[in-house]
Automatic annotation (TrEMBL):
It comes from the Eukaryota. Residues 403-417 have a biased composition (Pro residues). InterPro entries: CAT-like_dom_sf (IPR023213). It comes from Dacryopinax primogenitus (strain DJM 731). This is CoA-dependent acyltransferase. Residues 388-417 are annotated as: Disordered.
Amino acid sequence: MLPTPPQTPTRLPGTVWQRKLGDTELSYFLPSRTEGVNDMYLCIDFTAPRDLVTDERVLAIWAILRTKHPLLAAEVCMQEGEYDSASFRYVAAQDAHEELARARENLRISVQTKEEVILDYLNGPRLLSKEQPAYLLFGQRDLEQAEFHFCLCTTHYLGDGMALHKTANEFFSLLGEGMCDAELFKLLDHEWTERYSTTEDHRDSPIPQPLEEKLPPLPAQSFARYAARVDYENLQRKTIGGHVMPRKKHGPRRTTVPTVPFSAEETGRALKKCKKNGVTISHAIFALCNMVWLGIKPAGGEDLPTMMYAAANLRSYFSSIEESHFYLAVTYFNIMLPSFIPRDLTPTQTLWLRSQSVKRQMNAVVGSKMYVSRARITASQRASQAKTWAAEDDARDAGESLPPSPPPTRPAHAPPKVPSNALIGLSMLGNLDAIYAHKAFPDLQLHGLTTGSRQRGGAMLLFAYTFAGKLWLSLGYDENGFERVIVQKFWQGLLDSVRENLL
């Protein structure tokens, strides 16, 4: 049993903070309302001494994290049909006892395997909601070997992958310190007291500001804003993609996540080979996806590029301020590569040339002087589109007939619009061992990691990352939404190409 905490200095009748969702947060919140589209998860396998991983210690650490990162316990309030009214509302616990009780309501400790936990989360009834945006699923898989899994689940409008990994590292750091139950509860009480025991009316809100508030402001001059808009529209016209993974509906959405690790020795060889060619593994994975697709795609389409989309983190553009790290800070970019294999180059030469092209495109994205303005406009556009779709969904749910969408207008002499379709989304997480302080918790051996999200029907997202010294590839996709043979060929072809070209 957890001990009684030390007496806290002040017990408040209730402290509430509220702020409206930013554009990026809103673009994730609205489509998540019914089926939990984009609800995230991070599952980590680890071994540890049993006396370090008791139910009481897991609960106390989860309560500490919820206290430090208020969005994990913040509900979203919205007036019906008034999408811009959507706001985070955080009600602080009145003391550490209450925080512990709340954490218990958002924690499940079971004997399910990691695979069972993930598939239930992805395909079963939605676990999260606007009132319950974060949940910790924790399990002990093997009583003999003390094998555990940690699965942190949150809505995407709360945060991003970086937030998940930073929070997981905090969890393992506290778990590995070896504090007794009383010491953990004392820390919980300290974290609560430091943030919520003051009675001052002017205390700062603990809710992190939205990314749109954190980004450097646009110049006030109207010309600068006009230039930003023109730049964005020009960029959209250059975003061309003529290839998609063939879709075929076999039944209700069912997401599967095949995940393959490569050994530490193989990973070392891949890193060396990529470095020798002036690229990273992430650059090479984009190029390999392109080349594998060209080997299995239906005939035609060589005149249009293959486009893939990815997310970029914006945290490096924010001023350094003391606040919770659990917030959303992403924007998006596209990579375009040719849809043919040159006859005068070997496949190996083509791979490295295209990897270098990916590198140049990525550098051009993050190095552009217009990067921040593009991120702002992208967020605004995504929020606007999400509100349009939300209105359509709400009308349909209410049984209202929807007017037909007006045909797009185009000037009489305008050239025909080129397609802008993505083959696949890629989440290149990089070296996660730079986030996890493995040496700080030597009694814990973190050895497996899988991450992803609940998806729409017909969605596909490839993850690549290094963790525990190994390269991992993970493909999350709707197995009932695609031509199965094509997807199997793509996935197996990618694995074979990594082994053939990088290892």
